[in-house]
């Protein structure tokens, strides 16, 4: 746990450090908080008073006495603030409202249909946020802001899409500004995998981990990194482009121009494409994928069933998918000394366990990496939407040296 600083200059840092410590550990007394943060008892009492008055902390009974009077226990007041999280994907937009601990209090999914032009999607998103906020019945003044998770490269500082991922036509589109004007709330935009990583930090399995990686899988595959207690975006907002990590030198050609990228072996859309190509070239293939258009999700589900039934080309494709991911993640853990790897996004569906086991085996193969945990996300398919809400909570309440280090 980081130490607090007993200086007036850093009072907002101290406030967030106390909040972050309570959030990470659930329930703590003032004495425990002072010991964990290095703040004096008097400073701690003053900060806790402000947080109680502001509705961010609440008292929750008495703890065991260690000789003196019983200690009053503190925890986060979930109703103290709310945040809106939006996940944009090719087919749909998911909007959630979460409370201060990231629990979803309202959720709505908008199907885009053929209306996928950015201006239309942004307008529909704004209307949906208003509607979900109204139905959640939360006080507007307690809504800290709106976070948007986008499946492509994003300039998190300006809220502009730099390059489209799975949704065409968005390169260069300012996403945050029109939403700010329409909603009158702060809006943050980030890559969906980075948002998922921040979501894991706030409500998932990474509450206390200082360095971890999230493998985020929807139709495509990406990763979000959290290093030394903060999200890591890289020099040009391109960190964590897991799809284009080479796992087979000289292997399959990739649209990015390289060969052997993870994308070609493990992204669900690529696995489905390979399965369809195999089926077309082999008259006796038992995959049974239906002719004509079908969603990646449906086809991937069919492949999972074929895998369970022991169909040989499904075994070959999905075992190769898991092996490729295990190579990429083992290298990533080796490079970055991660204490935790989380598989999130729900894109692997029933093949989640296969990929988890492969990554666990590869990461655990070297004794020095054996302490690295590999887990499935408890937030599952809402990871990016909840992560988008967590972007707002993290910006507002995350423990970092505001103005001094950021
Ligand atoms: Zn590539």
TrEMBL record:
GO molecular function, one term: kinase activity
Keywords for this protein: Kinase, Transferase
Statement: the UniProt record of this protein carries the keyword Cell inner membrane: no
Keyword Repeat: no
SUPFAM superfamilies: Actin-like ATPase domain, Winged helix' DNA-binding domain
Transmembrane segments annotated in the record for this chain: none
Domain of life of the native organism: Bacteria
Family: Belongs to the ROK (NagC/XylR) family.
Name of the molecule in the record: Putative NBD/HSP70 family sugar kinase
Organism per entry: Motilibacter rhizosphaerae
């Amino acid at each position: 746990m980081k130490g607090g600083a007993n200086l007036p200059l850093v009072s907002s840092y101290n406030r967030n450090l106390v909040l972050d410590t309570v959030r990470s550990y659930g329930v703590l007394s003032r004495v425990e908080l002072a010991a964990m943060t290095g703040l004096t008892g008097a400073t701690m009492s003053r900060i806790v008073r402000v947080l109680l008055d502001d509705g961010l902390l609440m008292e929750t009974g008495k703890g065991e006495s260690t000789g003196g009077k019983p200690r009053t226990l503190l925890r986060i007041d979930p109703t103290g603030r709310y945040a809106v999280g939006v996940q944009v994907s090719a087919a749909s937009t998911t909007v959630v409202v979460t409370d201060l601990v990231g629990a979803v209090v309202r959720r709505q999914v908008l199907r885009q249909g053929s209306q996928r032009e950015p201006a239309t999607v942004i307008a529909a998103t704004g209307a949906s946020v208003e509607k979900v906020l109204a139905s959640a019945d939360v006080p507007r003044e307690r809504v800290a802001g709106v976070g948007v998770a986008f499946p492509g490269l994003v300039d998190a500082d300006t809220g502009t899409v730099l390059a489209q991922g799975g949704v065409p036509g968005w390169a260069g589109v300012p996403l945050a500004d029109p939403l700010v004007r329409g909603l009158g709330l702060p809006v943050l935009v980030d890559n969906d995998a980075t948002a998922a990583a921040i979501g894991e930090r706030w409500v998932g399995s990474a509450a206390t981990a200082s360095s971890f990686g999230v493998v985020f899988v929807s139709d495509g595959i990406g990763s979000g990194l959290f290093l030394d207690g903060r999200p890591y975006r890289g020099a040009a907002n391109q960190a964590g482009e897991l799809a284009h990590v080479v796992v087979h030198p000289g292997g399959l050609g990739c649209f990015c121009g390289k060969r052997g990228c993870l994308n070609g072996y493990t992204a669900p859309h690529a696995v489905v494409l390979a399965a369809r190509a195999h089926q077309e070239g082999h008259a006796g293939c038992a995959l049974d994928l239906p002719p004509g258009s079908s969603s990646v999700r449906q086809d991937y589900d069919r492949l999972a069933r074929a895998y369970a039934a022991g169909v040989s080309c499904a075994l070959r494709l999905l075992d190769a998918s898991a092996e490729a991911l295990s190579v990429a993640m083992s290298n990533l853990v080796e490079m970055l000394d991660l204490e935790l790897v989380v598989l999130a996004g729900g894109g692997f569906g029933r093949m989640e366990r296969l990929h988890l086991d492969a990554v666990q085996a590869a990461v655990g193969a070297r004794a020095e990496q054996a302490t690295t945990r590999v887990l499935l996300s408890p937030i599952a398919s809402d990871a990016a939407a909840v992560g988008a809400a967590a972007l707002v909570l993290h910006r507002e309440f995350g423990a970092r040296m505001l103005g001094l280090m950021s």
